[in-house]
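Workshop exercise sheet. Pairs work together: one partner reads the sequence aloud, the other fills in the structure field after running the prediction. Swap roles for the next sheet.
Pair: D.N. / O.F.
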Amino acid sequence: MSRETVLILDEEFHTQWTLKTILESEKYIVLAVDSIKRALQNFKEFEVSSLITEYRVDHSQTPEIIRELKKSFPELYVMMLTHENLAEKEYEKIMRAGIDDFFLKPVSSEKILIHLRKGLKQRKILLQKKRLEQKLNQINKINGNGREVASRKDHFSFNKSATVRLSE
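Structure field:
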């Protein structure tokens, strides 16, 4: 089983240290940065599974950055933790940008871990779906008869462990 990489983007050293300690105790690989530039560099160098970010970093609002990251990494799980009490309109903007979970600080480590596990589980399902769709497209190309193979697509079903079986 591969370990998931979590990127923490927060200017507060104490927040970085606390989250890093909690997540490393759960065997996550943790990268902690204090600037958007360094965060983007980490996305180029590592396979980041999750981003935990503050609302404002480098005097910028992070939702715009999240929106761009989600274009390149649609399966990325993003959690936002902030002290800022946001207006309803701003909250809606954040959620439309691709934030998966939003919490006001302080937030318990248990809540962070529960939501992170849930988000990473969803990420694995999305990645598996993507791989299966790619395999199906390859099969369609090889067979040259996309209609016959594509019609079998409806017979795929997911069981509880998210493996795929072909129904008879």
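Discussion prompt: Residues 5-124 form a domain with the Rossmann fold fold (CATH 3.40.50.2300). What would you look at next?
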